[in-house]
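Example 223.
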Amino acid sequence: MSRTEGGQVQTPLGIFGGTFDPVHLGHLLPVTDAAREIGLHRVKLLPCHIPAHKATPTVSAAQRLAMVRLVCAKWPLFELDDRELRRDSPSYSVDTLNEYRREEGNRPLVFFIGLDSLKNLNSWHRWQEILTLCHLVVCRRGDCLASFNPDVSRLLEQHRTRDARHLKEKPAGLIYLADTRELAISSTELRGSLARGEATDLLPEEVLAYIQLHGLYGVRSEE
Ligand code: ATP
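Predicted structure in complex with adenosine-5'-triphosphate:
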């Protein structure tokens, strides 16, 4: 067990990073399932910087943040962590995880990702360091098949656990594939639907209301 200096068992810190452009149910429901499965009651939502050339022209970082804030006010599981947006430039996950590690001592860190992100893990900046800093809890993704490239297959062989209790026993180093709802939703497709004026029930209602109020993603403004 991972314990404090006083000998108490430490609950892992859950973190879920993303561009959240916009935050949708494909982000929130699978992580809700995974958190329940592994016994976490709080997860930090960590919106990341998007380089200016990639940002959605009609949506600012402040508006992405506002949508995540609305979710955190409504969903008891989630709490906002705006540290990456408070910095001037994009930060790599490995740097942010190093920062958490410095703050949290040997408390287990659980970083939630979707299956597509696991498949691309070997393209992340300093990807070999990620599992020295945290555990990865992977959510299924409806539009993504579980076939892995050789680097990721090897990593899975070396680090996979099938027992969620192990995540509480050490600070980092494990990959757990959670049994989550499969939702084939992506922000990119959602933005397309919104721009075409199609109805969508794939967004939390508070986020849809915000998008409609401010006329984001090509939706006609109600302002
Ligand atoms: P884009 O369409 O721009 O790729 P996205 O919807 O994939 O956006 P991000 O905010 O970039 O969303 O993703 C943040 C995290 O959420 C990533 O780890 C990603 O794998 C995960 N994720 C996104 N959509 C889903 C989904 N439908 N099911 C499970 N995980 C998801």
